[in-house]
Amino acid sequence: MFALPERQEIVSLQLDAGATVAEAIEASSLARLFPDEDIQQCAAGVWGNPVPRSHLLQDGDRVELYRPLQLDPREARRKLAAEGKRKS
Description:
By secondary structure, the chain is α+β, with helices and mostly antiparallel strands. It has helices spanning 21-28, 30-33, 73-82; strands at residues 2-4, 7-9, 43-46, 49-50, 63-66. It starts with a strand and ends in a 6-residue tail after the last helix.
């Protein structure tokens, strides 16, 4: 799974037993689907838990790619507070 603010892609794959996160990312063709994104630099995770790309997958695992944050959430709250606003 990879998402941008305006678009997301969820790709279902059938992989051989013992496949790694890296192999799943390669098989997903997300780099082709998002040519303007550096998929290889994104952190990876399984079910919301960061894992190395060498992590062995289990049947039913959901591999996720995490883009770098554009703004630290704490900094965003400070900025809103300085402006006298609250996040809703």
